[in-house]
Recover the amino acids of this structure.
DNA sequence: CAAACTCCCTGTTAGC
DNA sequence: TGCTAACAGGGAGTTT
């Protein structure tokens, strides 16, 4: 599933291919993929706009669109890939998949296709990005995100640390894969209670989150052999490896459920300290 | 305030 | 072999 590193990879891929492109046709094949405005409006409003930039905020792709006539400010096309979404940029002659939910035809002769077999992904067209991403927490790779920032966030509530990492209003962009990976790297148990984690351990968690995300971006995301979304070559240390051995201590990796999500961790590397139990 | 649950979806897989 | 049912999973919304 696309999380921050996969979305970043997709944003870079898109940026190279569609920056400057004029959109001259839009079709929505699965109306519920489009949150706002209504699909007909969506098609009408986007047609004729130019893609100025492609970026990312949390797990959202952010395309800045502008009108050629310049009579109004920029607008934004946001795409959340959720579970199974992906983006293709192909020639129109490439046969369209039945899972291509939204297609933008570009003047350059290419098509930008939002492909999403499970239909959980969402597209937004807005004038104000904050309308969509306003509630997101800080970007973990932003220099402004320090150990102190993380400390304030974790100490302000009492909950399982994994649940806090998954909460997009706490930190943006971390999902099930990188939450498990960062906790493993930090040698922190997923059920450790946030406001009882020492500052020293929070500092380790902070650098673990950043190292894990940076490493995954360098590798262009996780190689999830899932077949649904093919990304890069990041190999998870614990995620999806329950029953296999920990690469650090060779204990058998355990699987539990935290915040309704499957959670893998090493029971030996990631001990739950007495002081951090509920 | 936080946690738990429900819903949206379909490809994959386990069970029969 | 072929069928069905269970399951996974991000996040918004609702209930506890």
């Amino acid at each position: 599933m696309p999380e921050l590193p996969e979305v970043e990879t997709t944003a870079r891929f898109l940026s190279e291919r569609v920056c400057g492109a004029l959109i001259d046709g839009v079709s929505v094949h699965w109306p519920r993929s489009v949150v706002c405005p209504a699909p007909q409006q969506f098609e009408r409003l986007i047609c004729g706009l130019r893609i100025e930039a492609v970026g990312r905020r949390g797990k959202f792709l952010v395309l800045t669109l502008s009108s050629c006539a310049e009579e109004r400010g920029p607008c934004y096309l946001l795409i959340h890939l959720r579970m199974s979404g992906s983006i293709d940029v192909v020639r129109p002659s490439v046969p369209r998949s039945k899972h291509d939910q939204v297609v933008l035809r570009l003047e350059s002769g290419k098509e930008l296709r939002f492909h999403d077999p499970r239909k959980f992904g969402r597209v937004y067209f807005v004038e104000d990005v904050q309308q969509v991403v306003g509630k997101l927490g800080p970007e973990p790779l932003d220099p402004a995100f320090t150990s102190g920032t993380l400390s304030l966030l974790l100490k302000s509530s009492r909950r399982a640390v994994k649940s806090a990492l998954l909460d997009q209003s706490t930190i943006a962009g971390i999902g099930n894969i990188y939450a498990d990976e960062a906790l493993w790297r930090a040698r922190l148990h997923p059920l450790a209670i946030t406001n009882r984690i020492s500052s020293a351990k929070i500092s380790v968690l902070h650098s673990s989150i950043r190292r894990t995300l940076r490493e995954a971006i360098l590798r262009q995301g996780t190689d999830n052999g899932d077949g649904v979304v093919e990304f890069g070559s990041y190999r998870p240390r614990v995620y999806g490896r329950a029953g296999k051995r920990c690469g650090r201590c060779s204990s058998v990796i355990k699987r539990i459920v935290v915040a309704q999500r499957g959670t893998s961790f090493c029971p030996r590397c990631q001990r739950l300290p007495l002081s951090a139990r509920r």
Q: What stands out?
A: The domain at 147-276 of chain A is CATH 1.10.8.50 (Helicase, Ruva Protein; domain 3).
